[in-house]
Amino acid sequence: MQLPRILTPALLAALIACGVLLSAAPSARAQGSSDDVILEMSQAFKRGDKAALTALLPQARGNPLEPWAAYWELKARLEDASPQEVQDFLDRYPGTYQEDRLRNDWLLLLGQRRDWDQFAAVYPKFRMRDDPEVECYALLIEQLTSPSPSPTLAEQVSADWFSLHRVDDGCTQAAATLIAAQKMQPSVAWRKARVALEANRVQAARNAVQIVAPELLDRFALLAANPAKFLATRASARTLPERELVVLALVRMAANDPDAAATQLDSNWSPQLTRAQRDWAWGAIGKEAALRLADTASGYYAKISRNADLSEAMLAWKARAALRAGHWRTVLGAIDAMGPDEQKSPTWVYWKARAIRATLTPEERADPLSSRPLKATELLEAIAGVQDFYPQLALDALGRQVTVPPQPAPPTPEEMQAARQNPGLGRALYAIGLGLRSEGVREWNYTANLAV
């Protein structure tokens, strides 16, 4: 049964306060030995013991957490499972978190197998849509099969690829296909390699380089292992791929020693790189120095000619370094160069307003109707509130009192009854009560955000 109004955090808090959801969860003690089986299966799943999971599953039947037990058992042997076994699981636990989580796992496997027909049949039923790699497979199918793929397809693949913090097949394959078809620029792969190497994801960086310069993988391996040695054995970089490898080596060096990377860039490589490549290298060096709270960070960032050449992470750390140094115009420039989503973040809305106020001329300060003071006030008004840190700071900057948030409205009798009967909420609390907090929290969030 669905709740009659959106299950907001405030409503959930009210339901818990009233004891409604706690009473909706069955008693863990009432299930006796089957709870012990669930806990044993949880441990078997973590250590990858397929045989133990299969042997224990019949004893978990009828337990409130049976969907978890069945998920663990099938997930552990999914590569060897038949499509019918997967479908039987989906049919047995419809509408549950476990059903959609297994669908996600199955879609990834179908994508890896290049079973596009099966993937296309399963994907429309995927409710969570929270896995960028799965979306990349769907976009790849569109590119391969549609006579008129979406004009934003390459942009979507790029965004998904950059959002992944793991080595993946789906987005890498989609990017390779689009680059080969000249629907995506090779520079996207080089940028992915830079971002991945900054985060010490060497294999992800290697996969990106393989798309655009497979002949240079040996050199990439050297720079990833020893960037100083790689740079020392080269006097020049004549081609674009060679210059990109120099940037990657500088990025790799900066992660361990930003000052050494700065010396290399200044003394040897700066004239040979393009403006955008130099800016990225200085951005990586500046970011690493800022992470160390080094006073040199602002100086390194000052060598950048154009903020638009930097990544979001570099811009964020440029703004933070400038805040520490009291360089308000630099703060403002870094925030203005951020993407739309970052600029909407209450953090950067607040600091942009503060930066505008800090850079007002005497004439602007004297004229309250001047556009820039009004802009700062408008930004603060847009985020002011009592529910979070920066909204509260905005209230204070506007000269208003920060008050305690109002109490949420009490749940209605209908909501209380619906909560008691909601199987996802009951299962989530049961799992938490049994000590399976991670599983319980995931099912809670799923039920709260997608199932109601």
Write structural notes for this entry.
Helix content is 69%, strand content 0%. The chain is mostly helical and 452 residues long.
List keywords for this structure.
single chain, 452 residues, mainly alpha, 0% strand
Termini Cα gap: 9 Å
Report the β-strand fraction as a percent range: under 5%
- Which residues form runs of ≥5 with pLDDT under 50? 1-6
Largest sheet: none
How is this fold's topology laid out?
Elements: H1 9-17, H2 20-24, H3 33-46, H4 50-60, H5 66-76, H6 83-92, H7 97-112, H8 116-122, H9 132-145, H10 153-163, H11 170-180, H12 186-198, H13 202-212, H14 217-225, H15 227-232, H16 240-256, H17 258-269, H18 275-291, H19 296-302, H20 312-325, H21 328-337, H22 340-344, H23 346-358, H24 362-366, H25 371-383, H26 389-397, H27 413-421, H28 423-433, H29 437-449
Helix pairs in contact: 3-4, 3-5, 4-5, 5-7, 6-7, 7-8, 9-10, 9-11, 10-11, 11-13, 12-13, 12-16, 13-14, 14-16, 16-17, 16-18, 17-18, 18-19, 18-20, 20-21, 21-23, 23-25, 28-29
Summarize the structure.
The chain is an all-alpha fold.
